[in-house]
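To whoever is on call:

I kicked off a structure prediction for a single chain this morning and the downstream step that reads the tokens threw a length-mismatch warning. I double-checked the sequence; it's 256 residues and nothing unusual in it as far as I can see. Pasting both halves so you can look.
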Amino acid sequence: NPGESSDATYQRFVLNPPDDSVVVKVNWNHNPWFSEVLNLERQHMLKTDPDAYDWVWNGNCRKISDAVIFRGKFSIERFETPSDVEIFYFGADWGFGSDPTALNRAWIKDNHLYLDYEAHALGLELNDVPDLFDTVPGSRIWPIEADSSQPQTIRHVAGFGFNVRSAPKWPGSVQDGITHLRGYEQIHVHERCHYTGQEFMLYSYKTDTAGNPLPVIIDRHNHHIDDIRYALGPRIRGSHRQIMSASQARRPRNGF
């Protein structure tokens, strides 16, 4: 899919194609193997977020508005994962209803966050979670910080040999996580992480009637972003404690 209309590839091959080229727009409705699972996903987005649908499913350009939470902080690209990564961070979000089961792997270098693998599935049975997680290298070796709202799911998946544990939540943990993620110099999303890249393009604040962002996060397009927050939870909690400690240190002893 094209990103913004200013994208160099879009300009070169769609708006101003070479004279000796043939440009054909191919979409989901041209795919003879388009599955029912994908169709349910398509219908859900059409109903809940028509603006995003036009970009994700109709292949039209999307304007990255000021309300997009990670505007200017991420890039979707191809990169190699070095062999000397010391720590991989894994996070999982559990799917139910129309929400997907999601897993991401991340690593950090020089205050840059790299997201190099994802797993994503809708309507996944619990016993099929191991096969999905096994598509992400290292998922059976490294700890997986998972959504704590489903403790029975965590116990079930742990029974298959994964080191999966409940990720703590606290008041303001979502905003703390966003602040932490925006604190990286850049977030690099590997181009194979299709759904993760979509979420970074779409995760937004609500806006007023004039289109100005409000300090209210829309709870949508955030399954992979949530699992990334879980994965980095120990680092986020460390930053949160340091901020709280500094705030308490500045507070006058008489409480005023």
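Update from on-call: the warning came from a stale cache, not from the record. Cleared it. Sanity check on the structure: The first helix runs from residue 8 to 15.
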